[in-house]
Every structure is written in C-alpha cells, then in structure tokens.
TrEMBL record:
InterPro entries: THDP-binding, Transketo_C/PFOR_II, Transketolase-like_Pyr-bd, Transketolase_C. Keywords: Oxidoreductase, Pyruvate, Thiamine pyrophosphate. Its cofactor is thiamine diphosphate. GO terms for molecular function: magnesium ion binding; oxidoreductase activity. This is Pyruvate dehydrogenase E1 component beta subunit.
Amino acid sequence: MAAPALERPTATAGAQTVTIAKALNMGLRASLERDPKVLVMGEDVGKLGGVFRITDGLQKDFGEHRVLDTPLAESGIIGTAIGLAIRGYRPVCEIQFDGFIFPGFDQIVSQLAKLHFRSQGKLKMPVVVRVPFGGGIGAVEHHSESPESLFAHIGGLKVVSCSNPVDAYWMLQQAIECDDPVLFFEPKRRYYEKAELDPSTPPVPLFSSRVVRAGSAVTVAAYGPMVRTCLDAATAAAEDGLELEVIDLRTLSPLDLDPVFDSVRRTGRLVLVSEAPAEASVTSEIATRVQQECFYSLEAPVLRVTGFDTPYPPSKLEEGYLPDLDRVLDAVDRSLAY
C-alpha cells in the first residue's frame, strides 16, 4: 500500500520552496554526487543547461566527462547509453522534447527493453530516459506529444511520471538507482509550479500511486500534468459540497492500482484524466482493470477525460484539445447522474 500523502507538503525546518524544474536539477545533482557511475547526456544538456534549464550548472560542477553534450541524434543517444550501461554506468538521457523520442524508439523497444531478458539476467540496463511531455506551452508540432502509453505497452520498460516538486526530486533519484530502464515523463507545463521540499523526509516508493486528496463522492485518477487540474477541480467541487478523491497514479508501468481499487470500492465511481488520446491508452487499461476488480462496487461506468484521437493541434487550438477543469467536472456530473 502506498504511503498516505497530503495534497500539499507541509513546510518543515529543512524545507525550501522549489519548482519542479529546480527539484529535478537537485535530484540529478544528488545522484551525480552519490554515484560516480551516473552520467547525464543529451542535446544541449551541458553548456546550455538544457532548453528548460533542468541540467543547469551540472556540467560546470561535474565536468564534460559526466555531463555530455551529444549530437542531435536520439537513436545515437539511446544506443550509446545502452553501451555505457553494459560497462557498468548509469546513464540519464534527456530527450529534448517528447516528439523527438521517436527517432530513438527502435533502440528503446528493440534493445534497451530486451537486453536483460535476452541475456538471461546477465546484463542490467540501469538507463533513465527523461522526457518533457504534454502540451500547454504553445509549442509547434512535435513539441507537445503524450507518447507514454506506447512505452507502457513494452515489456522490460518501467514508465513513471512526476506531478510535483517533491516527487520530481525523489522519483528521479529512485529511477536512476533502478537496475531496469525507466522512461521518466516530466510535465513540462508544470515545470515552474512550486511546493515545499524537505530532502530529509523519506520518499514514497517509486512504483506506487497515492491518494493526494481524500474524498467520498467520486474517485478521480490522473498522472503528470493532469494531477494539478484534478486537484483544482476537486477544490471547485468542494465549494458545492462535493468531495472528490484524487489519486496521483505516478507509475504507469507497472501500474499500482490497489489505491484506485480501494477508493472505487468506497465511492462507486471513477473518472480517469489524461492528456493522451483515449484509444489504446493507459486510461483504457485502467478502466478495464477497475471493471474486472470492482464490478459489483461500481455505481456508474468508468468515464475518461482525455486528449482527442487526433494529431496534437496547433497552439491556437490546444486550449480546446487539453482536458481542463470544466471537462473534469462535467465527467463528475455525468458519473453522479447514473
């Protein structure tokens, strides 16, 4: 069972207010300091510090031999990381934008995901692939994708997504320490949202979901950028006397659905929220599993609020494409109407 968590971490003597971007930088720094085998590599991660400045200052402090600027070649980045992992290193690859991951897709699914199995356990693949994902920043084509379901489908890969600075700090370090390859999806439009982080507080286990707001009327589950949207929807619903229970899924492969099952057995209703298209997605898998495990507890069908089954639209149209507070509340109302 995942450890209980508050909607907003409480400040303590050792806490500081940080953004998700800063927390990720701190997590990388802590891992680089802890283990000399940790390397950071990617396009513009060194001198520039990354397009979102996630790796800012790391090359200056740890040197070019540990924070490596690479050519614009995602397949080469992943392939090089695989070779480094075979030699005992723990590479952390940055994919500059979500849509840029596809040139490296073959290396990820054909090699990175399979080498541990192919070698009968002799080879470990402690590779982290960081992916800023999702929309909401007004970017051009290939800069606002949500490809997480593609990777959650592949055996041998772990897939996680942080939604707040505390998780960003701890989950990235935990992913780096994992001996399996981890796709680490970061909600780019939330990079500069702030919360209190106390590095002395023990983290929640990596592959676990958790309740971030307790409620009794409807269960609402999301991950990455949509967790904040769901929390805002819960705040709005509370003004009308409706208490939504919000669950941050955090891990997409393996899925940790016990907290979701427990919640649905109490509320009888579930709304799943994701920026990714609905068809053949993480949300469709969760809907199926909940129907199987909680059939006699459900008072309404599992409903989903997602992106549409189209290519991501131009920036002028993304406000209508992305799930928002009103769409979440509409799904809640439809669930309660059954």
